[in-house]
Amino acid sequence: MKNKIVAGNWKMNKNFSEAEELLVSIAESLDDMRLETEIVVCTPSVYLEMAADISEESNFYVGAQNVSYAPKGAYTGEISAEMLKSAGADFCIVGHSERRNYFHETDEELAKKVDLLLENDIVPIFCCGEKLEERQSGNYFQVIDNQIKNALFHLDKEHFDGIILAYEPVWAIGTGLTATPEQAQEVHAHIRRIIEEKYGTEVAYNTYILYGGSCNARNALDLFSCQDVDGGLIGGASLVAEDFIAIVNAAETASKND
Ligand code: 13P
Fold first, then answer.
1. CATH class of 5-257
2. pTM higher than the cut 0.85
3. Residue 218 contacts residue 181 (beta carbons within 8 Å)
4. Residue ranges of the domains in the chain?
5. Whose CA is closest to 211, among 180, 242, 239, 241?
6. Which of 82, 125, 166, 197 could share a disulfide with 233, CB 3.0–4.6 Å?
């Protein structure tokens, strides 16, 4: 049985006291649960230290949502991998479609971010996924292959083994339109296949591939029950403690049914 991972991506939501309240209520709910599932909460960077403090008394990990492609220096407004680590982040989302689309992040920059995260002992959660027109044109495997190969396939086997992938079809993010379990499974199996071709069966099996895109308490169990779906990267539903915990429970059930 492979345990699941459920990661929350808060995006740019919550002020300081709201963030504290949500972290505390997640921690309190988790206190009563004996879990196999690993939980990661990716907060805005300004809340990382607080999240790390609260997580010490609980059983979730803390993640960031972005990192600079440069290690340090004159990059006003940027936050380095070393800073994230020193503030308590053990995970970091990279290449989210919102960053690719609104901030024009390139595969080349994403490859540098991944390298810096690994150097600083932070697990990258690397996002890939096609836009609606790419799905409709039937071109989506090619889009996803390029995203993964261009930003990750320079890594050697040992380093790739530390990466989490998240398949997030852009048309499903924040739209309420979820990929069906069949659609998710098809892409996840394809991703695992290209990892296997490059790094072999063991690495392919060990690599976590999460699904993200309007995943919620109602659809999580069906999605997580797919053979190649190893958990979820949750946006909107991670902003409400009960919803997030219900998704964690779905992950527990799915891995027990495996
Ligand atoms: P939603 O769950 O709000 O669709 O967001 C998914 C996402 O982008 C997680 O990174």
1. alpha beta
2. yes
3. no
4. 5-257
5. 180
6. 166
